[in-house]
Amino acid sequence: MFRKTGQLLLWLLIHFTVRAQVQAVEQQFVVAQDGSGDFKTIQEAVNAVRDHSQIRATIRIKSGTYREKLVIPAWKKNITLIGESAEHTIITNNDFSGKDFPGRDFTGNAKFSTYTSYTVLVQANDCTLQNLTIENTAGRVGQAVALATEGDRIEVFNCRILGNQDTLYTSKNGRNFFRDCLITGTTDFIFGEATAVFQNCTIHSLTNSYITAASTTSEQAFGYVFFNCKLTAAGEATKVYLGRPWRPFAKTVFIDTEMGAHIVPAGWDPWKGDNMFPEKEKTAFYAEYNSTGPGANAQARAPWTKQLTAGEREQYTIDHILSGWTPGRKLRLQPSGVPDTSFSVKGSYRQEHPRRPDIRIADAPRPASVQEIRQVPYRTTPMDKQLLIDIYKPAKKGKTRHPAVLMVHGGGWRSGDRTHNTHLARKLAAKGYVCITADYSLSTQALYPAAIHDLKAAVRWMRTNAQEYGIDTARIAIMGFSAGGELAAFIGATNGNGQFEGERGEEKPSSTVQAVVDIDGILAFIHPESGEGNDSRSVSAATYWFGYPKTERPDLWKEASPLTHVTAQTPPFLFINSSVDRMHAGREDFIQKLNAFGTYSEVRTFADAPHTFMFFDPWFEPTLATISGFLDKVLNPKSTSGKK
């Protein structure tokens, strides 16, 4: 009975831990007015999103007319709103400047202003709107905003933004991207100071007036840029200007845009009636490139505006305009903060034992010749997490310096712990090695390359504390299993490469290692033999570590591959492998590179062995013998009195 109760509790713990991890990846909500979703209003769904979440939340909105004044506040970042269709998923309101406010607004005003008249206000960063109609139906009563954006990296895809005066307000100095949108209005209906790109959009004027009123600041390189857009008009609109400067340094550029006959020949207006800034045309930057259609008239344009040259046009790339932000690319998946206990030696045994009933977990008491020193802090990460090591060393005291081995546990870069190497560390310490098992940042805590920084710091710690623990600093090896094998291989392959050191303290000993033992750790993430990230239906362990799937950031996956970094400084390697071929992806290519530099390597493969073979008899003792034989050969571990 107690055993069954314990199993039930374990199952419940695993179930809710996994559920918490899944929820930490992405929140999903459905809004439906008929009650068939999670919420009936969009605002309720927004309010349910975690505050300050690093993980994207997707809110899917079923067709309907949602009469809301919707606010996505600054602390509700990383939200995506997706309507069922742009034509039939409508968010609507009718506030306008001068309309009586029910009570007083947050500024104490009794009436709405331009800035509070919005139907939808996006204050948070990294939000996406898709397949929606956002409208202000106040009519031609003055300023009445449909959509106002205050956050940075705001994406709007296939939306209908409908209004009259001041339809779209891109407030504050953020970056906005609009694609395949319809934007309608009368006067200054695209206005504000943000840097905004409009791609493949239809801009529809309802009356004779002005399309844009940018208020770009002097510090901004770009304001509004329209690519491949189409300017259309209602029948009554026959005299429309491309824009006028709301503030002195306004910037607006139309590139490859089709312009209807409603666009006046001069194109642009200097807004001379503004007494506060009477000569804004002297500092504003208004330009075009390759305008087409009956409204395109380069020769007749206002003399203070510009036609870009082909060379100048080359500077107008989306990446350049938006300062390196690429719209449409998913944000980097962030650590969940939820510990992952899915990988353990005992759990692996339970998994393998039904198929291999003769295996046993390799374990033995600490040899009398070995001293153990546990829970020694070696590093505090930039996230203020203290990392620990355990030290296993020959117990005999004296001035003899011993070769040392830094041991890195496996677990898919997100699970496992340093105690998995305890038995092997004891056995190697009995053979004359100082063995150190180390914590490092898992992907639930910090993304690549944080673990690399930790382990290089661990090697530096070993050299800094060599005298106290009897370490020969000229003979340091690193060994790892599975993900730990990949990490160990990376540390060795990047000997002398300062790019991966991370933040360092005042003491800066070398992080180079003199040998590597890679036990079933892959050498290349992007390789025909690699299984990491190839199944688009699931999130691989490496995806959690990098924060991006392979298809989105192949450059990052390649950078993290040990195979990428082999040089003449890469030390001798021992590869110990199971019968699972994908766990040594890139090994033969890696060996070819080592051979080209004349660097020694060995390979030992255990036929019909599971991936976790090193923890079990009958493979443990042969694995130990292979490791010690290799280290004896390449490190020559004969005692050297006083050697540093």
TrEMBL record:
Q: Which GO terms describe its molecular function?
A: pectinesterase activity
Q: Which pathway does the protein contribute to?
A: Glycan metabolism; pectin degradation; 2-dehydro-3-deoxy-D-gluconate from pectin: step 1/5
Outline the extent of the Pectinesterase catalytic domain: 29-323
User: Any signal peptide, and if so, which residues?
Assistant: 1-20
Q: Name one GO biological process term.
A: pectin catabolic process
Where on the tree of life does the source sit, at the highest rank?
Bacteria
Reaction equation(s) it catalyzes:
[(1->4)-alpha-D-galacturonosyl methyl ester](n) + n H2O = [(1->4)-alpha-D-galacturonosyl](n) + n methanol + n H(+)
Q: Which residues form the BD-FAE-like domain?
A: 389-582
Q: Which Pfam families match?
A: BD-FAE, Pectinesterase
Q: Which keywords accompany this UniProt record?
A: Aspartyl esterase, Hydrolase, Signal
What InterPro entries does the annotation carry?
Answer: AB_hydrolase_fold (IPR029058), BD-FAE-like_dom (IPR049492), Lipase_GDXG_HIS_AS (IPR002168), Pectin_lyas_fold (IPR012334), Pectin_lyase_fold/virulence (IPR011050), Pectinesterase_Asp_AS (IPR033131), Pectinesterase_cat (IPR000070), Pectinesterase_Tyr_AS (IPR018040)
Documented EC number(s)? 3.1.1.11
The active site is formed by D188
The record's similarity note reads: Belongs to the pectinesterase family. Belongs to the 'GDXG' lipolytic enzyme family.
Q: What is this protein called?
A: Pectinesterase
